[in-house]
Amino acid sequence: MRAVTRTSRSLLALVAVCLSAGACGVPADQTPRDLDRPRPASGSNTPAPDGFGTAIERLYLIRDGSLARTLRRVPAPPTPQQMLTDLLAGPTTAEQQDGLSSALSTMRINGMTVNQRRATVAINEPPDQAARSDEILAYGQIVCTLTSQGADVGTVSFTSAGRPLGVPRGDGSLSTQPLTIADYASLLDP
After folding, report:
1. Is 6 a residue whose pLDDT tops 50?
2. Which of 13, 52, 78, 95 is the most buried (most CB within 10 A)?
3. Of 102, 103, 107, 105, which Cα lies nearest the Cα of 126?
4. Which residues make Cβ contacts (< 8 Å) with residue 36, sequence separation at least 6?
């Protein structure tokens, strides 16, 4: 009887080893194939492919003369600097196909600092300082984007050559005061 019990135990152990070894493997494909939408490398600053990423980045782009909120999936919560960089890079190909554009193509930004939830954006004025018709939308894009994440930036101010810069609000009036998304509410896409 002991011989049968030992044999049964040995047989059960052998079956368990075979089953666990077979269950751990990943079957090999017969031919090479492309993987669908690979995840971006960890720490990447580029938007994740559609449907990937654990964080949402809110950017404001332009659609039909209004500020339109655009959501992008990114690998990690974006910093204010990353948001500004992504905004300045403009819409992705898919966003362009969806009718989105940017009014920031000619704006030159020298830098940004964030202190006590106030972002200060340094603007390099164009040499002729000519006003553009889409200037209100350009400043609105920056203000709405930077204040849209909530926790890091509550207001945005602008400077040029180290001095406060009066920028147009949504109603066309100039302001050197800190701005919020409320200053551009009349321009938001419904």
Report:
1. yes
2. 78
3. 107
4. none
